[in-house]
Design a protein that fits this description.
Layout (H helix, E strand, L loop, with lengths): L5 H14 L6 H12 L4 E4 L4 E3 L1 H17 L7 E5 L5 H12 L2 E4 L6 H10 L4 E5 L3 H5 L13 E4 L8 E2 H6 L16 E7 L7 E6 H14 L6 E3 L7 H13 L2 E3 L9 H7 L4 E3 L20 E3 L4 H12 L3 E2 L1 E4 L3 E5 L15 E2 L4 E5 L12 E6 L11 H7 E2 L2 E10 L5 E6 L3 E4 L2 E4 H9 L4 E11 L3 E10 L10 H9 L10 E5 L12 H6 L9 E2 H4 L1
Parallel strand pairs: 1-11, 3-4, 3-5, 5-6, 6-7, 10-11, 10-12, 12-13, 13-14, 26-27
Antiparallel strand pairs: 1-2, 8-9, 15-16, 16-17, 18-19, 19-21, 20-21, 21-22, 23-24, 25-26, 27-28
Helix pairs in contact: 2-3, 2-9, 3-4, 8-9
Length: about 550
């Protein structure tokens, strides 16, 4: 690894801000993909054995864009897309992009009630939906008047009595179509819903430039570049969408499975010669097999894996492992420089990335000193334009041009940022502040533990105690992974006061629309969080 200093890396980031060759908009992005890859690159939906190289993808996108504009989709039209991972999803998103239209990416697990809220909140005018997902659509109680049956475009059916067919819409277009109106990088491209700790989900307004800044910077900073990228999360989430931008900018192939599978991760990496991927959290603590190191990986992004998890992944796969910090509202924010060789970076989120300035402030909005904990504030180009139709929430989220992340960070003497947890996700035990995230990272490393959620339990003596909910790997139980072994492993990773007092085994978790554990829902399940939980004090 090249010996670079922190100052060298920061200078690279600033140079990228000044000298980048990022495409101006999504039309230019498609042109760049063709220039870089020609009849290579593109998209590979390997579970369905459907591929499009860069030229084929560009032609398909403009054909679909033509079909969409023939039925009334134009610049600024709001189109909800509710699809499982399939080739029609990225094609539709890109088609909306070249038209200057707006995608509302919809979680495929939403109920009719959640869809009623989303469609009305986002002022949806058209809907692209998979045939297998029509049930909740047909049970809508408050379908917006604009979404007529003819404006419901179904993927997977060529003839339906009431709705339109995506395939027939696509077939009506031509590959030579080019919109005769201009678009801009400042055009709104997505109303991307995110859910915080309280309140209903909010739609983040993301411009074309937001996505280009998010997706293009990693390959622009890489000396070797990437030819094969794995995007294995559901496409309605943020990650696969910016990974598509990354692939197009790189001239790479984006490999998309039908669904995320931690158990198939290594198999997929090897089968498709993957060079860049996100790492699945459920297998952060797995030791793996000796042959796992035989792979083509150049970089793994392993978010919030902790020091031990990061080093375990690096040992297992023999390639650089990076962390960072981002969110829907701000995109990529902090990043660990790929070429900075410093073991102190492990477990941190690195430094402010290109196009980003960061501060850590106290409750009064005053910068804290290194080593102190405070809230991370961010500003820069390509942040969200605001929450759609929610001016009060937008005003609350910003102080001037600084976005308040709601996440707690510290910065060490070297300038590296480390996430401590959410502002509302800290546990106050006696006089000590405990990060739920830190405890979760430690418990995830316990053999047999798949996922963890840590919460505070009210306590008359200490104020709050620590409780951990454990979701175990398939085939494991509280007998094979007993509480005493879990806590014994914790003692090697956590100070005594951070070790959970209460443990509860669960078969599943409630999740937010962005697939984070819905802790608010979890703690509502019982009036007394001690009920049914293993208590370390009683056990002793």
């Amino acid at each position: 690894m090249t010996e670079l200093t922190l100052e060298d890396c920061a200078a690279q980031f600033r140079a990228l801000e000044r000298d980048n060759d990022f495409p101006a908009d999504f039309r230019a992005l498609l042109d760049r993909a063709v220039d870089c890859a020609g009849f290579g690159g593109g998209i590979n939906c390997f579970d369905q054995e459907r591929t499009l190289n860069a030229v084929e993808l560009r032609d398909e996108v403009y054909r679909v864009a033509d079909g969409l504009q023939r039925i009334g989709v134009g610049r600024g039209t709001h189109v909800a897309v509710m699809l499982l991972n399939c080739i029609e999803f990225p094609v539709t998103w890109l088609a909306l992009g070249v038209l200057g239209a707006v995608q509302v990416a919809v979680n495929t697990g939403f109920t009719s009630r959640e869809l009623d809220y989303t469609f009305n909140d986002a002022d949806v005018e058209f809907l692209v939906v998979g045939q297998a997902l029509l049930g909740p659509i047909e049970n809508l109680q408050q379908r917006p008047a604009a979404i007529t049956d003819a404006r419901i475009i179904v993927v997977g059916a060529t003839a339906l009595p009431d709705y339109s067919s995506w395939q027939l819409m696509r077939d009506s277009g031509t590959v030579d179509y080019r919109p005769n109106w201009p678009i801009s990088g400042q055009d709104l491209l997505n109303i991307q819903y995110t859910s915080g700790s309280t309140g209903l989900p909010k739609g983040c307004m993301l411009s074309q430039r937001s996505w280009l800044i998010f997706g293009c910077q990693s390959p622009a900073l890489s000396k070797e570049g990437f030819s094969n990228i794995l995007a294995d999360h559901s496409f309605f989430y943020l990650d696969p969408q910016w990974q598509l931008v990354m692939a197009l900018y790189s001239g790479a192939t984006l490999h998309i499975p039908e669904r995320l599978s931690s158990s198939k991760f290594v198999e997929r990496v090897k089968a498709h010669s993957i060079e860049f991927t996100l790492f699945p959290r459920p297998i952060v603590g797995e030791y793996g097999e000796p042959e796992d190191v035989d792979n083509s990986l150049k970089l793994i992004l392993a978010v919030a894996s902790g020091v031990e998890g990061t080093r375990n992944i690096r040992r297992r796969f023999g390639c650089p492992v990076s962390d960072g910090f981002g969110m829907t509202e701000v995109g990529a924010c902090l990043r660990v420089p790929d070429e900075l060789d410093d073991p102190d970076l492990d477990g941190t989120c690195g430094i402010p990335g290109p196009f980003r300035e960061c501060r850590i402030v106290n409750e009064e909005g005053v910068d804290v000193t290194p080593g102190q904990t405070g809230e991370l504030w961010v500003r820069g180009e390509g942040l969200m334009l605001g929450y759609y139709n929610k001016p009060e929430a937008t005003a609350e989220a910003f102080v001037g041009d600084w976005f308040r992340t709601g996440d707690l960070f510290t910065q060490n003497a070297k300038g590296y940022y480390r996430i401590v947890g959410r502002v509302k996700d800290m546990i106050r035990r006696s006089s000590e502040n405990i990060s739920a995230l830190e405890v979760e990272q430690a418990l995830t490393m316990v053999d047999g533990v798949k996922q963890v959620a840590v919460v505070a339990v009210p306590d008359d003596y200490r104020g709050e105690e620590v409780k951990a909910y454990l979701l175990l790997e398939d085939g494991e139980s509280s007998v094979s992974v007993p509480p005493h072994r879990v806590l014994a492993d914790c003692r090697d990773r956590l100070a005594v006061y951070k070790i959970p007092r209460f443990l509860e085994y669960v078969s599943d978790f409630p999740y937010t629309p962005s697939q984070k554990v819905a802790k608010a829902e979890l703690v509502k399940q019982k009036a007394d969080l001690r009920e049914g939980a293993w208590d370390a004090l009683s056990a002793d």
